[in-house]
Amino acid sequence: MTAAVEFLNVSRHFGTVRAVDRVDLSIAEGSFFAMLGPSGSGKTTCLRLISGFEKPTAGTIRIFGEDMGEVPPNRRHVNTVFQDYALFPHMNVRDNVAYGLMVRGVDRRSRRDKAEEMLSLVKLDGFGDRKPAQLSGGQRQRVALARALVNEPRVLLLDEPLGALDLKLREAMQDELKALQRRLGITFVFVTHDQGEALSMADRVAVFNEGRIAQVGTPSEVYDRPATRFVADFVGSSNVLPPDLTRSFGGPECWASLRPEAIRFAPAAEARATGRVSALRYLGSGTRVALEAGGQEIAVLVPAGNPLPAVGDRAGLTWDSDALHLMEGA
């Protein structure tokens, strides 16, 4: 099957800044693909390279097998949803959605019908005559989504589209975006710095760091089997153990990742390690217990309702053997 998007040794440099550096990437058609990383890691630049708003310094980008080297943005089968919505304040919702069709010369009646169809798709029936200022943030984001979909792109690019929404609305929109992607069957490429968004929505995740991809995999692969110390530390919360501590915990002398939720308290006779409790942090669904062990802080996530040690207590720790994930050469 032809990939929806391919990067072949792609770089984008701005003077001495290597925003994207020798990236190889293949995004499957019909998938929900997340680009995850901190600010400045290169993920948004990659999105702009796909859309054609940036040109690579080196390398090749293909969309459905076609080299995009000389293809302008308006001739690519992609469209973008931005975090700031970028709606026209003087136009009503229907005309905002239909704008791309107007630029293409589609007649007024067809534009109106298609815009109403898209508004129905994003659950905004009856909102066509309103202005953007009369909508909530979530509603404006839906209008931006409808406007991006009206031209029937084969790849939809989403640049931090939920970043301006509050937590409850953001979680609701995550579910709606995923359901919409499944319904339409087109490729979504979603840029975010939010690990929870990437893990809960994407079929596959690329973790970016300093212009390069540190790891690509399914959400469970990236979370359970991080390839590097950066991935282990950035994706979720992990105890990243240096080689000497890994060895003292019963593993080989290499870097390792041990997730807080995989650790349990145990009697001294059954413990793999011991530590002194230095802090307790209540999280609602559980409590994060910090311990000093082997010269390093170790975090343990205790589910709500379970007994807790007190600050200053000495506690034994244990975990299943496969919970200690080794990162050779990381």
Automatic annotation (TrEMBL):
Keywords recorded for this protein, A-Z: ATP-binding, Nucleotide-binding, Transport
InterPro entries in alphabetical order: AAA+_ATPase, ABC_SmlMolc_Importer, ABC_transporter-like_ATP-bd, ABC_transporter-like_CS, Mo/tungstate-bd_C_term_dom, P-loop_NTPase, Transp-assoc_OB_typ2
Recorded superkingdom: Bacteria
ABC transporter domain boundaries: 5-235
Entry-linked PROSITE patterns: ABC_TRANSPORTER_1 (PS00211), ABC_TRANSPORTER_2 (PS50893)
Annotated Gene3D superfamilies: 2.40.50.100, P-loop containing nucleotide triphosphate hydrolases
MF-aspect GO terms: ATP binding
One Pfam family recorded for the sequence: ABC_tran
Annotated PANTHER family: SPERMIDINE/PUTRESCINE IMPORT ATP-BINDING PROTEIN POTA, SPERMIDINE_PUTRESCINE IMPORT ATP-BINDING PROTEIN POTA
Name of the protein: ABC transporter ATP-binding protein
Organism: Albidovulum sediminicola
